[in-house]
Amino acid sequence: MLNANHTDLHRELEAANARAAEAERRCVTLQNDKRQLVGELQHQVRNLLAVVRSVARRSGETSESVEAYRMHLDGRLTALARVHGAMVVDPHAKLDLHTLISDELLSYQAKEGEQVDLSGPRILLQPQAMSPLALAFHELATNAVKFGALTRDEGRISVSWQRSDGPEPRLVITWRERGGPPVSPSARKGFGLTLFERVLPYELQAQASLSFAPTGLSCTIELPLSERVVADEASATV
Description:
Layout: H1 2-62, H2 66-89, E1 95-96, H3 97-106, E2 116-119, E3 124-125, H4 127-146, E4 156-164, E5 170-178, H5 191-204, E6 207-213, E7 216-224
Parallel strand pairs: 2-4
Antiparallel strand pairs: 1-3, 4-5, 5-7, 6-7
Helix pairs in contact: 1-2, 2-4, 3-4, 4-5
């Protein structure tokens, strides 16, 4: 009887020790995950602040007045806030390209299925690609509202994107406007042109081209499907 009791007690102690060890392991894992999340969030915040400083500086350099500077800066910071808000909750958060574009256009009351057509495969973006692309589509949308397709009820915007296969796969994004007034390039080099000519190539190794056709503005952005740009492993190349 004593031997049986001793055996049962031994088993209970072993089970209790196993549960305690598992609880300790989970606690250590949670602590490590928390430290990693905090570190990633700090990294994202530092990157975002660097982008904000750059946007503020470049907006000041290309604005003709204090009021224009305030208006342009507010719009650009709002565009950044839209795409980075989720990372405050989850530093691992990823945003798909469709949502990034549709949210920016929706902020101007341009709804998909009405004045906007979007098409393309699901592309999950890395955080470091969100800011430059968000600013690019903000500039295009703002221009459409002021001078392009969104100045008229019959105006339409179509945005499509596709993967271009090859030794170095690339993502090709095409923005086209129609139904708006005739467009022409601006006589002065503003923030938007600087963004397409300098920022996108520097940040994402992207190539961007703008065409001011009589039928409306068109813009093509071509960038490598690298791990810096896309988060889905099936699309990214090392």
